[in-house]
Specification:
The complex is a heterodimer of chains A (443) and B (380). Chain A has 443 residues and is an alpha/beta fold. Chain A is built from 15 helices and 15 strands. Chain A is globular. Chain B has 380 residues and is an alpha/beta fold. Chain B has a nine-stranded mixed β-sheet, sandwiched between helices. Classes of the chains: A alpha/beta (443), B alpha/beta (380). Chain A: One of its GO terms (cellular component) is replication fork.
Chain lengths: 443, 380
Amino acid sequence: MTSINVLGLPSSVRDTLLKASLDTVEDLLLYTPQGLSNDIPSARFKRQQVSKGVSSGGYDRLMNLTPNEIAFAYDQAAAHIFETKIAYGSAHDLLQDESWLSLGDPILDAAVGGKGIMTRAITEIAGESAVGKTQLCLQLCLTVQLPESMGGLDGSVVWMSTEGKFPYSRLESMITQFVAKHQEDVPDIDADIIRENIYYESMADQETQLHIFNYQLPILVHDTYLSQEDDDGKEEDHEHHAEKHSASPRKKPIKLIIIDSITNNFRSELTVGSSGTDQAGNQGAKAGFRSSILQRSADICEIGLRLRALADQYGLAVICVNQVTDVIAAESTFHPPPLSFRPQPYTRDFTLDLQGTGKLKKPALGLVWENTINSRLILQRTRLPDSYETDGCAQSALREPPRTLSVVFSPWSGHNRHNDPSLPGHCRYKIDETGVVGIPNPN
Amino acid sequence: MASSRPAVTLRLTTQLRDKIIRSGYTTVGDLCAIPTAEFAKELKLTPEQARDLLDQLHPKGSILNSFTADQTWEQEKKLAPITTSSPAIDRLFGGAHGGIPPGKITEICGLPGSGKTQLGIQLSINAQIPRSMGGAGGSSIYIDTEGSFVARRASQLASACSARLSEASEAAGAKPALMTDDLLRGIQYCRVHSPVEFIAMVRILGGILQEHPNVKLVVVDSISFLFRSNFSDTRMRTKLVATLGRQLADLARQHNLAVVVMNQMTTTIDAATTGKRSFDPLDENVHPALGETWGSICTHRIRLYDRGGQQRYARMFKSPTMQEQTVAFQIGPDGFSDVVDPAEPGNKVEGGGVLVGEDYDMDFGHASTQSMLFWDDDFS
């Protein structure tokens, strides 16, 4: 919110606007009627002003302004927002700014479009439990710290968990492997620095979650950038004396946000039946569920907007882990849905268990969330056809079933909802002690 | 302007309003009945006051610029539509060349992954195809609310487009066409994070378009992301969306540019009871967001969807000129194109699997018959 004082309006105009409670640039743009010169303030518009806490008397004062004056104020406000908030440039410039975060394995990267996942966007990783979602995220925690020449972002990561404890012991073993693997390429790699650059936050319930997204996360991200600037400053100052001294753990700016998982709090707090609020109390289960669903949608939108803005402002990659939900098989496609989450059997779902029970699953949180994310990756465990057991690929000591990663949608790569390994957007992977590793296509 | 409108409701300064009231004129009709110059002399108005009054009595918009249908038609014929690179989708719009028509708002809606953003990127490149090759020969502005515009993908599509153009110009013996970098420079991109920023951007757009008359396409991807259920005041949301839509439509008309607006789909709760019109029998309670107010602003509305993740379809469900139709298309590494049909010529409809899949025609009912005819006409 910016005060209208910055707009350089004639004082009479400014005073009138202030009296009408249009005292910020944002309010001026949102609440001023458009088509200014020929609108008379309607009764409906006055009601809006009242609900915003502005007396209609205050609004009437606006009538003392001429249309030209209001239009001028409005244009000034628009110009101010345009200059301060909106980055405007050609796609050619944008191409230079785009950066990508490697998944830590060339085969996985190739499957998702060549360079990994895009920054400034929200990528969802969905899959059943124990399919390797957390493993992949842990791997990203490490690759994000690599220099940009190696597919990393030279940044730190914040891990926001709703699902119990952070898997420290697994991370520890992965760090050991990671350091050993990259010792030669990256001379200054150090396990302590890696640990220093992984922030962890726990979000116990929905209220905490909203608070963290609204206030704490932006501050945390901003702080790491500030301290980065400080560090740079100091380094320049003391460059002559203490060049060798910079071996101490250095905090990097946050370049990756991982939310594991976005689903948990929304799921556990979705009230079915009495919603506990006084107004919905009497109206029975349906009303309670309905209002709860609407509230949930609003919360999801809010979180999405916050994450998007943050990601764009600082050039971050955002990873959201999502759980899956069973698709209730509808006997007839033309029946009204039991709840608002209607399965769409032909278009959107995919079989997670190809040869087995044929159960349909889809990522949780429905269309609202689907509209919020930029791209969606699915991890699944498949039972493969028998021929696979006999060919060379399965000879590894691991007896666990092979897993697959596929792109459901993404603006930068083709999608593959068909589990067809011959098409792009798809690969097999396994999980070993180093992390998630792609298996080359046998063909 | 209603002549019985009270004169006090004119948006004038207090002094001027007092003068008018004292002079005994009560309605706008009375004021319009006498020449303003005479009136100004009588009331001793300053030139500024007279001009304000004149503006109010005869708002600029109300002076009708009327054209005959013939003139409008001539005008429209001169403007080149913007091709989608898929002749099948282009034909949905009708006309000799087909493609996204200038001067109007076209809505593209669809679920995530249905190809909205890809189409946006494709169009912003295609808008630059030179006039000599039947394009609009302009530049584009891409307003991104979602952050899904990927410049790397745009450069992929641009190099494919550039290759096609050079081929064509070599064949015609003309000078080399646009290069990939030129095409990328011809897309102005801006990222918008909030409704307020979007309002400001649309307001500023008028100025930008005046400075750059070469802009032939504005893409908004997407309008619904900013105005979703996190907007607390639904009435205000409706008003804002309607105003923004009107502003965009005005810009499109004034500057003869095509405005393409992406829209998301939403789940309608209790769709069964409200009995709303269904857009796609495949999933009947999914509708384009923002409701009917927005829908009536768009001239053309197209829904993109895919079936089983295999075949993509575009369905025109609102158009002033064309029937409701469905066509198939595909998106490859080089962008949009028609479905390459592996079947024998003359066997298109049956063998291509484009329209007759398992229970496909059942799903589409009446619409499928139309589209079958359409395909038949074109390919046999």
